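ARCHIVE CARD
Drawer: 12
Card no.: 0347
Subject: one protein chain, sequence and derived structure
Cross-reference: see card 0346
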Amino acid sequence: MLDQILIGIGSVVVGGLFFLLGWYAHRRASESKLMSTEKLAEKIIAEAKKEAETHKREAVLEAKDQWYKAKENFERETQSRKSELNKLEKRFAERESNLNRKVDILDKKEGDVKRRERDVGNRDRSLAEREKELGRKLEEENRKLERIAGMTTEEAKQLLITNLENEARHEAAHLIRRVKEEAQRKADREAKEILTLAIQRCAADHVVETTVSVVSLPNEEMKGRIIGREGRNIRAFELSTGIDVIIDDTPEAVILSGFDPVRREIAKAALERLVADGRIHPARIEEVVAKVQAEMDEKIREVGEQVSLDVGVHGLHPELIKLLGRLQYRTSYGQNVLQHSKEVAHLSAIMASELGFDSSLAKRAGLLHDIGKAIDHESEGTHTQIGAEVAERYGENPSVVHAISYHHSDAVSESVISVLVQASDAISSARPGARRETLESYIKRLEKLEKVADGFKGVTKAFAIQAGREIRVMVESKEVSDDQAGGLAEEIAQRVEKELEYPGQVKVVVIRETRAIEYAK
């Protein structure tokens, strides 16, 4: 029992010793670890201080570098601004010197002006004195004349002015009449020779065209086939061609009506083919119309080329050739525009040759003068404006372009070619039978001519004759003298030109007649 106790005590003592040894060893280890940790911390702190010093030095260097750069930029900007300021100072100095010189010049001019003003003032005063003296002398002479003539100054002045006016008018009218008659004789003779030669060398037929075309049918049964079941064939045909089909009591014929002659020609050719073929239904109608349309385009081109070849105008743009071909199917007051253009081309060339100008250029301008009529329904403006724009677009000569725009006096004449084309156009269109005119418009034009002439003083009666180409004016012999008759004819002609529109020219004839009647008993 005691042994066990001793053994237990010994175990306790040994355990305590081991505990003390372990605690001491742990303490020593902790102290050594703490010391190493403190050393590591001190080392880290030292390294951090070194690194901070390094970063600090780098930041200071970088800041200094940026400062130097900013300083250099500032100095450069300052230098450039100084140079600009120096330039501005120089400019201001030059302007100031110029202004000083101008001020000196103005001072000198002002002095000269003042001296001139003084001289003028002196002259005005001397002139005023002389005028007063002259006025006094004139009054004295006038009083002497009034006593001698028995008339006042105003009466004598009015009588003298009246006599001078009458004498001047008489002499002027006589001189104008003589000069005008002489110039007119020469101008008429030369113009008639040129125009007669041109007209004789260029004779053209004129056929009045209408807005309808007639298609012959083999029998009356064909009308029903053209109409179709419930009118489907005739509706399809009108929609495809844009032309109205009129089926009436006319035996074995139908009428195609439309204002577009090209479409009317296409419709006529298409209907003739359909009638000859016998197969008439909407699909076939559309097919035939499309085929005829293509053929018509080719035909128009061929017509344009043939006209260009016939007239002798070469080098035209293909589009202008097509437009010339379209003129074959255009009319103006019943006159075929293509035939009219060919005639104007020949007339212009003949007159240009007679006058010594470029006949080929005149012929080209005459052929193209109405080219705008081929497209005037597609564009806005007059046919002269449209034609000039088209010709210019396709590279025509400026003289040709101007002649196109001038031939109806829509522009100011710049060349003789323009005047020749205008004259040729008037000759071709004003030729008797060339164009048709309704009876109503014809009568109105004659009435307007007579009304214009009746409005002049001294006119007793006016008669429009020769289809409005001439107006004869009867005047009172007591109110209008022989010399004044020429002036009256000119005034009436100017009024007609200003107020009326007419083709060609109107001849004004003033007739003054004196009759003495006595009876023998």
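Annotation on reverse: The longest helix spans residues 2-149. The two ends are 220 Å apart (CA to CA).
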